[in-house]
């Protein structure tokens, strides 16, 4: 079990992907190969505008830090996720939301979401995560300390 200081607030999502490769293409940033050294400034600029692509970020609509996203497969999911949760009540809440049909879980550190790309409101994120076309939102965990 993690030490008390190892607990961090996170949002948890679940999804059904055909395989690990599909899940990784969704959950993590993707980069095209960099243009050749003799590429024009316009070609390089267009490449920069397209990269990285990140379907998770696009679908959630948040400005996010990719360093605080973790993809977990079904086999390791529930026991590992429970080990990340401080409160017994939240562990029970997780158990009620787990569905054996989910192939993967995506953990997004709460502090890694630092802006809402779907809102013009200044400051920190104003919108709570919800289900998307691909993801089922299972909730935020460890938001407060016991």
Set down the secondary structure blueprint:
Blueprint: E1 10-15, H1 20-27, H2 41-50, H3 55-60, E2 62-64, E3 69-73, H4 77-83, H5 88-97, E4 104-109, E5 113-116, E6 136-141
Antiparallel strand pairs: 1-4, 1-6, 2-5, 3-4
What features would you describe in this structure?
The chain is α+β, with helices and mostly antiparallel strands. The protein has one domain. It contains five helices and six strands. The chain has a four-stranded antiparallel beta sheet with strand order 3-4-1-6, sandwiched between helices. The radius of gyration is 17 Å and the shape is elongated. The mean pLDDT is 88.
Shape: elongated
Largest sheet composition: 4 strands, antiparallel
Report the radius of gyration as a whole number of Å: 17 Å
* Unreliable residue runs: none
End-to-end C-alpha gap: 16 Å
Task: Give the tally of structural domains.
Answer: 1
Treating each run of at least 4 consecutive H or I residues as one helix, how many helices? 5
Element order, helices and strands?
A: EHHHEEHHEEE
List the strand order in the largest sheet.
3-4-1-6
Helical proportion, percent range: 25-40%
Fraction in beta strands: 15-25%
Structural class: alpha+beta
Overall mean confidence score, pLDDT = 88
Counted beta strands? 6
């Amino acid at each position: 079990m993690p030490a008390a200081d190892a607990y961090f607030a996170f949002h948890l999502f679940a999804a059904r992907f055909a395989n690990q490769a599909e899940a990784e293409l969704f959950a993590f940033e993707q980069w095209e190969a960099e243009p050749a050294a003799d590429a024009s400034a316009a070609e390089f600029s267009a490449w920069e505008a397209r990269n990285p692509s990140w379907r998770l970020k696009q679908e959630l609509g948040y400005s996010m830090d990719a360093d605080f996203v973790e993809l977990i497969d079904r086999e390791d999911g529930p026991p590992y996720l429970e080990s990340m949760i401080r409160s017994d009540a939240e562990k029970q809440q997780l158990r009620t939301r787990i569905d054996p049909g989910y192939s993967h879980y995506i953990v997004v550190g709460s502090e890694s979401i630092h802006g809402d790309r779907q809102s013009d409101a200044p400051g920190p994120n104003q919108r709570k995560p919800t289900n998307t076309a691909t993801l089922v939102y299972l909730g935020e965990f460890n938001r407060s300390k016991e």
